[in-house]
Each structure stands twice: as C-alpha cells, then as structure tokens.
Amino acid sequence: MKRKDNEKVMGELRALRGLRELGTRFSDSLIHRPHRAFGSPGTPSDYSALVSLGVPIVVGQIGNVVLGFADTLMVGHYGMEELAAASFVNTMFTLVVIFATGFSYGLTPVVGSMFGRGETGRIGTAVKDSLVANLLLSLALVGVTVLFCLNIHRFGQPVELLPLMRPYLWVNIASLPFLCCFNTFKQFFDGITDTRTPMFIIIGGNLLNIFGNWVLIYGQFGAPELGLFGAGLSTALSRVVMAVACVLVFFMHRRYACYRRGFASGHVSRAGVGRLSGLGFPVALQLGMETAAFSLSAIFVGWLGTTALAAHQVMLTVSQLLYMINSGMAAAVAVRVSYFAGQRNYAAVRRTAYSGLHLVLLIACVLSVPIFFLRNTLSWWFTDSAEVSLLVSVTVFPLIAYQIGDAVQYTFANALRGIECVKPMIWIAFFAYFVVSLPLGWLLGIRLGYGLVGIWSAFPVCLSVAGVLYYACFRRRLRSELAGR
To answer: Most buried in the list 3, 197, 198, 274, measured by CB within 10 Å?
Structure first.
C-alpha cells in the first residue's frame, strides 16, 4: 500500500515539474518570438519612467539644434552667401560633433550598470577615465579638422564662399575640447538618471548663444559687425560656458559628493580608458557614418549650386530638430536598459526596449503632421528666396518618409548600447550608410538628375535597412543572454 502511495506522490511531483518546465519555456518564448515581442505593450511604469528620463534629454537635445538653428536663422537674414557658407561648414563640422558625442556615449552603459548595482565610488573613477579619454579624442579631432580647413578649397565648393567658410570653421575647431568636456559630464548625469541638470545647462548656453549671435553678427552694443564669423564665435563661447558649468556643478553640489570621492581617490587606468574607448568608438563610428550619409551628401549638393546648398541647410535644420527629439527619447532607452542590464534583469531590458520603440514611433508620426502641412512655409524662417522655398517644399516628402525606419534604428541602436553590444553596430552602419545611402544618393540625385530630392530620397532606404538590422541584432543578443542565464 505504501509503495502505491509513494508511486502516486512521485507521479504528482513529476507532473508538477513538467508543468514548471512548460511554464518556463512559455515565458522565455515570449521574449524569443519577435512577432509578439515587437508589438507587446510595456507596463505603465515602463512608459512613465522613459518619459520622465526622456523629456529632459529631448529638451537638451533640442538645445543642441537651437545652437545651429540660431546661426542659420540669423545668418540667413544677414546674407544669402553667408547662409550657403554656413550650410557646408555646419554639415561637415556636424560630423565631427556627432563623432565626439557618440564616443562619450561609451560612459552611459558603464555608469548605468554601476548605478543599478549601487557602486557609486566606481562611478566617480569611471568619470575620470572618461574625461581623459574624451579630451584625448578632442586633440585628435582638432588635428583632423585643421587639416580639413587647410584643404577646404579642394572640395569643389563655390570659390566666393571660401573666405566666409574658413574663419567660421576655425572658431568652431577651437571649441572642440570644451565640447568633449561637456559631453563627458552630460553622459555621467544621464547615467545616474539625473537628466535635468544638463538640460538646464544647455538651455542657459542656448540663450547665451542667441544673445551673442544678435550682438556679434549685427554689431550691437558697439561690438564689431562680424557676420558669419560672429555666429561661430558666439557658438564657441556658449560651449565654453556649458563645459565650465558642468564642472562647477559636479565639484560643488552636495548631491554628487559620493561620486566626487571616487573621482578624487580613483586613478586613471589604461584598462578603464580602454574599456570606455572600446564602447565609445563603435558608437562614434556608427553615429559618424549615419551623419556622414547626411554630411557628405553636402558635397553632392554643392555640385548643384548655391540655391540647392541653402535649401539643403534648411532641410538639415528641420531634420536635426526631428532627430534630436526622437534620439533624445531613445537615449532614455539606453539609460534604462543599462540599469536593468547591470541587475541582469533581461525581461525588464526587453520591456524597456519595446516600450521605447512605441514612444519614439508615436512621436515620429505626430511630428510628421505639422511638417507636412507647413512644407510651403518652412524656408521663410531662414531666407526669403522663392527658389529655396520651392525646393524645400518638395524635399520634405523624403524627410517624412524615413521617420518610421529612423524611429526603429534610434531605439534599437540605443538598446544595443545599453547592453554594451556595440561592435556589430559598426558593420551595420557601414552597410546601411556607405554601401546603400551614399551611392544611392549619388545615383538618384546626380546621375539620374533628380537633384536635391533624389539625394534625400536615399535616406528612407538606408535608415530602414539600419533599423531592421539593429532590431535583429538586439533580439539575437537578448536570446543569448537569456540562454546563458
């Protein structure tokens, strides 16, 4: 009798064990199956946390656009040639700025994962390593941009614009070390979920830049009328002020005392700098190649003439506004993902990534509506040229077309950054932007004669390709982490 009872108990235990294994396989399958995961909603707390983190980042990102927007707006009303010169310099220099910013992004997942584990002392040491790495990078970028400035006449731009381009570029080059210093502390603030501090610093810098533009471009309050050079000088001064403000806040506010102790006691190590560089360079290259798809297209546009260059600058300013809003919200995904990755909570990593995708898609769709209806008046903010206005009104359509693919690639690029899976991003970006975008833009815009619209029509294709490949890479890496858990 006892034997039958024991067999019955053992049978029930085996049945319970089987149910438990079935439940485990079922829960894991929710993550492994992309067609469910891609559209599955997150919890309200997931969305609210992303919005809380993302809105200050978005405001700060918009602030970066304001630096270029203020230059374009005031310079455009100062003169047509100045606007065309600013267009070429800004598109080229933006590539450098994005590369420097992308390199600093290597600090975010490191700080975020340490913050998730409560390792405040190590965060301060990581900030010191990152500051050294970013300042060394700034010196290298200064060398590259000086070489570019000395050979700017070799890029086939209108000869009459060269005397305007060179001084404007020189003053921007001088501000690079301060930009890299600011980037370091901004990523630290973001990594510990303090996204409001850099937001306020950026807003202050932008207000200073706008006032400086008014004074130095037009010669107000007895200042010399410097035109385009005055716009560059004002932008450079605002970068200096923002860097100094970040340093003062970090070293003087009591909120960061625990991080200062780690900063003061920690030593710069080759391993620490190497790790941050290993995370930062792939992101910098990825963002750099993405930006190159836009920046290097300015060379093609320059072949089309001054009107096309001016319209291209207007389109870049509008697209940068959309970019900063979407990428700002996606940057919150990297912060939250790194926090949960530090705790090895990959279910939360997955929820955060897809919740971020839903938010960025919603924002992209909403922003496309006013862009469409205002397409005929967008250029009047920058210039009163009827030719530029007509060209902008038709080039808006490729801009709207790429918003969905852009939202996908923003989100999953940041999710990959949050889990420190950055090396595959280099090859994906190279394929999407160099193999697809630039040749296709040349083919449509120059070879087939569709002009500026043809060049911009390559962007929806390349951004969609990048988005799909980033998503596939994230899903594969997440599955690997779950399998090894």
So the answer is: 198
Q: Which amino acid is at 387?
A: E
- Gap between the Cα atoms of 142 and 147, Å rounded: 9
Residue 41 belongs to some domain of the structure = no
CA distance 384 to 350: 48
3 found inside a domain = no
CA dihedral defined by 328, 331, 335, 340, rounded to 10 degrees?
Answer: 130
Report the interhelical angle of 403-418 vs 346-373 (nearest 10°).
150
More confident residue, 466 or 320: 466
pLDDT of residue 443: 93
* Alpha-helical runs (H) found in 105-175: 107-117, 120-150, 162-174
Q: For residue 451, tell me if it sits in a domain.
A: yes
Say how many domains are in the chain.
1
Tokens of 108: 């975010």
Q: What pTM does this model have? A: 0.78
* Of residues 476, 448, 165, the one with CA closest to residue 298: 165
Domain that holds residue 191: 46-483
pLDDT for the residue 484 = 63
Answer whether residue 151 is part of any domain. yes
